[in-house]
């Protein structure tokens, strides 16, 4: 398991000796500079060490807001609220809006009342919400039903339920369960609480417990739309499609319960679980007023129309959903619209749900990561959790391209080659986007399923092309060398001077190192390079030839020989020098940079500019600040080979950031 889900080294590792306060100051400085990428990496590492630090959580809230990470913003705003003993007006208002947007209106109502009691001034538009909140509070009170309950107990139960619903929406399942169990102990018969407990059990992968709770709910209320929806969801997850479909008539006929918009939402989700496209269209017709401005409803309608073959109607609803750009449905709608722009042969069917909505938390990467240290026997864990095996075949069907990436994560995590076989088949197909297939080939090579450098046929821009899988593990850590401390110090100084273009001084320092360690390849190679720049050609060639005769597998030496062959326009000789390098797995970042430079040069010689762009996309991922990238982007511009609209910013780095969670 040690090779799985490794934590990335980040900025925090550069200052382990610093105290928490100094680290927080550094993090706050990064936020002030709007260096959001570096700040986010440091904040994540700090939060793992200090989850109760208010200052760290506050920085995460700021970063998430600045980078439009809506779920992360809301989740950490919740944490910040509970870490702040005396919140100011800005925090109260932000948390109040979070509660409203997440459907926890009673919490928002309570916050409003508390702010008035404390004399805290909120923005004017907040006061306009007071009357609707009072109405919602009364409706929830009436829904509880048992008016024999003491008023204070009833209010407490309703607020606990609202807290639980907020935590559910933020994927804080342990917190949600604690609130629900406390509320259930006071009112055991409250149906909504039991349904929420079933949902928490489902998301934590406790299917038997969820099933037991739902049986009790459906005995109490056979036509409860929420319980029916959850039951359909569980049976779909467990592969009991026929049992799930048998619920469709009951779900459609379920009488209106509570507020129309909540009933419509639960009904829609149940119908989406059952892939009931036509019934979703009917539901939208029935509850059009409640769903017309709703991102979830409009997104579901867009997907339903796409499944029904009405692409024009699908685009109308998806564009409407995408206008809610800061919501999960809005983001899914943007992806769906891009999918519809693909040629039909390259499309995956649009999915109603994203992975975080469809899969139980325990079956997603965050759930797997949380339990990775507790699992010693992967086969035994799979035997105890058969849902992975049951659900795997439907990943791509239910979740489209995202499902293929999840399938890779499962196969890699559980070391199931048969699961990776299906991922490989998807990567070879013409389904989905070129980006995802390229990503999967890269990961399959990186984890050893495919040999590093394997030649594969993949679909690119609607046609099949041959590509090589790049599966090097790249590190910035210095490789151990058999070298004396004095020579090593001189070597590092010589490299520093060379990079500063102080070649004469570099020659002096490297000659001293060479006298101490004439057989060290790094010293000989760097000295030869400097001598070549200084026009001492004969000596440079002599030193380099001697080096390659003694150590023919020297990495930089082979790259240099390949470049010499490219200068002679002998691509076959260049490939002979480069081929053995693919057998290596672990490269220093400087080796990878040289490797990419040589392959860009080779493919440019052969006029394979598409391949050059792909090398640059990988280069951007591992070393975005490498000055040699500018040289190659200028070459692309000169050759009129820069993709229109790319402006020198390849998509692969974004793809790996968004999809590559299994690093």
Describe this structure in words.
- 67% of the residues lie in helices and 3% in strands.
- A two-stranded antiparallel ribbon has the order 1-2. Strands 3-4 form a two-stranded parallel sheet.
- The radius of gyration is 30 Å and the shape is elongated.
- The two termini are 13 Å apart.
Keyphrases for this structure?
two-stranded antiparallel ribbon, mainly alpha, two-stranded parallel ribbon, 4 strands, disordered C terminus, single chain, elongated, 38 helices, disordered N terminus, 663 residues
State the low-pLDDT regions, or none: 1-18, 644-663
Strand arrangement, largest sheet? 1-2
* Record field, number of beta strands: 4
Strand content: under 5%
Give the structure's gist in a few sentences.
With 663 residues, this protein is mostly helical. It contains 38 helices and 4 strands.
